[in-house]
Structures are given as structure tokens and as C-alpha cells.
Amino acid sequence: MSCDLCSADGSTRFFAVVGGPEEAGVQICDTCQTQIEGELNPDHWRCLASSMWAQEPAVQVLATRLLARLAENDWARDLADQLWLDEETRAWADNESAGGGHVDSNGAALAAGDNVVLIKDLPVKGAGFTAKRGTAVRGISLVQDNPEHIEGRVEGQRIVILTKFVKKK
């Protein structure tokens, strides 16, 4: 069997794509799984140029989310700009949480007190500094009325952070 994302031949495993139909997912290789759950190697993900056009909506959704995580690369932004998804699939890609709860950039559920890491440099409005990629934010709080926001301390300042810019430790 081959990986739905990078087309590598070999063993694959089921990877659930949250926020859509129950039991929706893709078959991915160990390399893709390891990178999705950790640090992305942009060179590996150039394969999204073809997999983003797959007929299976779960593959399209995962490709869209990965391109968003790779947005610091010009080629990934260009691919994301080219990608067209029907309305239902776009809503699924934008809604990473089936239950409406807080989830990180990988779709992992977040809870109050969790530790997260920033996946991109974030300018902090009103504080005059930039929270750097890789910064650990310990003991987060959830913003109850908005599942896209969490709160945490960075450089001694309590800030609101978009969940799409963090990954759970």
C-alpha cells in the first residue's frame, strides 16, 4: 500500500482527520506520521503539490492543514492559493475539532494546564516583542467562548494565542 500524502510504498497506518465525518482518515507512512506529530521538514512536504488534488476529501483536508503549517515557505503559500475545495470540505479543513473544543495545529485536543510550543514567530500586539517559534508555553488556559484561542505566558506577559499556531508537547 502507498501513503496517501507522499505516495511512498510500504507499510501505512490509519491517521484520523478530525473535524469531519466519523472515522474519516487517511493511510500514511511512518515518515509522514512522525512529521505531522512533530517538526515538519519542508522538503518532504513538496509532495502535497499532487496529494492536495486527491479525490478523497480527508486527504484534501489534511493537505490543506499541512500547507497552513508550512505557510512560511513561498511554495506552500503558492500551493494553498491554488487549492480549491468545495464548501463542505473547506468547512471541515477550517474546523479541526469535531466537538467544537480547543485543538492544536495537528488536531490534538488541548486542555487547561497543557504545555504547548509555538510553531511560528508571532508578533505580540501591544507588548512590543515577538514570541519566537519553538517557545514553550506552559500551563495554558482555554478561552471558553472561542475554541480558536488559548491564553498563556510568554516572556512574563499573559497573551492570547491562536490554537493554529501551537502544537501540544
TrEMBL record:
Signal sequence residues: none
InterPro entries tied to this protein: YjdM_C
Record-annotated Protein YjdM C-terminal domain positions: 103-169
Superkingdom of this protein's organism: Bacteria
Xref: PANTHER family: PROTEIN YJDM (PTHR30305:SF3), PROTEIN YJDM-RELATED (PTHR30305)
Name this protein carries in UniProt: Alkylphosphonate utilization protein
